[in-house]
Write a structure and sequence with these properties.
Elements (H helix, E strand, L loop, with lengths): L1 E2 L7 E5 L3 H13 L5 E6 L6 H5 L6 H4 L1 H9 L4 E5 L9 H7 L2 E4 L5 E2 L12 E3 H8 L16 E5 L3 H11 L2 H4 L6 H8 L5 E5 L11 H8 L4 E4 L9 H9 L1 H10 L12 E6 L2 E7 L6 E9 L5 E10 L3 E4 L3 E2 L17 E2 L2 E2 L5 E3 L2 H4 L7 H17 L3 E2 L5 H7 L7 H18 L10 H8 L2
Parallel strand pairs: 2-3, 2-5, 3-4, 5-19, 7-15, 8-9, 8-15, 9-11, 10-11
Antiparallel strand pairs: 1-20, 6-16, 12-13, 13-14, 17-18
The structure holds NADP nicotinamide-adenine-dinucleotide phosphate (NAP).
């Protein structure tokens, strides 16, 4: 028996090593003066979650957050257990038997659906899959996107859509100094994409992308960008929203120059459209077009169809309409919001279970948003466990060993890390080139 209040004995499992999980580990260390023991589990052999597999490869300053998170993993009270999947290798009950508390921070890794005919045609692609592919996620290594098409539609006007458009619009040469896997750079260099339609179902005042991301589209050297002037017209409610909101005003200002006809030709062109809702993805055996309905907003701000349609002759549709979390076996889940219900991070109806990041609050905010989110969860956890006495269970390593699981340790990950850095030097390509195949990654961890 041991007192959890005596923080030396507090053992916490964090499931998911993305920003939310590692900020939670950091908060546990800080709020217990380094006394808590934290094991961070991840199904992948690599840490950093969306910093490695979601942040766009050409956003190097955001990717550098990994260097900060690395310090958390290197704290003597923190251990990394890569290649361990909750639900496959360990159960919720196993974790509750081994630890005083469990924090779930598994993110939101699947795409939301549009629910329109043709969504499953070959050539209709979830942005999550495309992002995983160019980020070198091992689950996406076998994807083979047909970039021989000339026109592509990207549905949704959030930051992920803008990332996807930028990667499609840049030359492979411009992307060579990023960590994009070599086979993806080759596929991008053979791309025949000439025109990218970026489509918002509401107006420019409702665009979700941030102003910094919008500006980057205007700064592309390889692509022109245009908005039809009439698409920038605002209804009275949107104009009032813009008046009150700096972010909206910033976006409108960034977009305004794009209403002028682009001066000169560039190899690629971005057509930014608003007031168009996807109605059907058309094609015989594969995507041949996207049918859109013109929209307007109701007084309450709801999207209304006008009955007026147009069809874009696109050969690929990238659906970038948001991510969602998946349920974890045995853990309460709200199917409407696709999140785990909680009070200040404590799982509602759970047993010494907590939640942080996108599976707690839904897929919103930037990487840094997870820091305060995780700190709140850890404050709740420590208050709950203060003074309580628990049975100290066996260590997770005994259980994993008994199951014959080959865990990827932090030292193993550093081998893979070094291999990727060496590969970049060999190819004369920036700081790192990712390995994107499970076998190559696991071989490198054992180097
Ligand atoms: P998001 O910001 O929620 O944007 C989703 C977009 O999809 C919205 O424009 C939304 O329009 C649209 N949409 C949803 N359902 C639709 C439907 N049925 N038909 C047509 N359009 C539909 O999501 P996200 O782009 O996936 O980004 C997720 C989070 O990651 C955000 O917080 C984002 O800022 C963050 N992120 C940040 C960066 C960065 O900081 N550089 C980069 C990438 C992602 P409505 O508004 O009309 O619903």
């Amino acid at each position: 028996m041991s007192h959890v209040a005596d923080a030396m004995s507090l053992r916490v499992a964090v499931v998911g090593s993305g920003p939310a999980g590692l900020y939670a580990a950091e908060a546990l260390i800080k709020q217990t003066d380094g006394a808590a023991q934290v094991d961070v589990l991840d199904r992948l052999p690599t840490p950093y979650g969306l910093v490695r597999y979601g942040v766009a490869p050409d956003h190097k300053s955001i990717k550098a957050i990994a260097r900060y998170l690395q310090k958390v993993l290197e704290h003597p009270s923190v251990r990394f257990f890569g290649g361990v999947e909750l639900g496959r290798d360990v159960t919720r009950e196993d974790l509750l038997a081994c630890y005083d508390a469990v924090i779930y921070s598994t993110g939101a890794m699947v795409d939301r659906h549009l629910g329109i005919p043709g969504e499953d045609l070959p050539g209709s692609i979830a942005a999550t899959d495309f992002v995983n592919w160019y980020c070198g996620h091992p689950d996406a290594a076998d994807h083979d996107f047909d970039l021989s098409v000339e026109e592509v539609a990207v549905i949704g006007v959030g930051n992920v859509a803008v990332d996807v458009v930028r990667i499609l619009a840049k030359t492979a040469e411009e992307l060579r100094d990023t960590d994009i896997p070599e086979n993806v750079i080759e596929a991008l260099s053979a791309s025949k994409v000439r025109k990218i339609h970026l489509i918002g179902r509401r107006g420019p005042a409702q665009a979700k992308f941030t102003t910094k991301e919008a500006r980057e589209l205007g700064e592309l050297g390889n692509a022109t960008i245009h908005i039809r002037p009439a698409d920038m017209d605002l209804d009275a409610a949107s104009a009032a929203e813009a008046e009150a909101d700096r972010h909206i005003r910033g976006n409108l200002k960034a977009m305004h120059p794009w209403t002028a006809e682009p001066a000169g030709e560039r190899p690629r062109h971005i057509d930014l459209r608003f007031w168009l809702a996807p109605a059907e993805i058309i094609g015989n055996g594969r995507v041949e077009g996207l049918r859109l309905e013109r929209t307007t907003l109701s007084e309450a701000g709801r999207v209304l169809g006008t009955g007026e349609y147009e069809t874009l002759p696109v050969g690929m549709v990238l659906r970038s309409v948001g991510y969602q979390s998946v349920p974890l076996a045995g853990v309460p889940f709200d199917v409407r919001s696709s999140t785990i219900p909680h009070e200040h991070g404590r799982v509602t109806g759970g047993t010494r279970e907590y939640v942080a990041g996108w599976i707690k609050r839904g897929p919103s905010g930037v990487v840094g948003t997870n820091k305060s989110d995780a700190a709140e969860t850890v404050t709740t956890l420590l208050a709950d466990l203060s003074g309580r006495t628990t049975e100290a269970g066996q260590g997770i390593e005994t259980l994993l060993e008994a199951r014959g699981l080959q865990v990827v340790t932090y030292a193993d990950w550093l081998n893979l890390d070094a291999t990727e850095i060496a590969l970049a030097a060999e190819l004369d390509r920036g700081e790192r080139v990712k390995l994107g195949r499970w076998t190559d990654m696991l071989d490198a961890t054992r180097a």
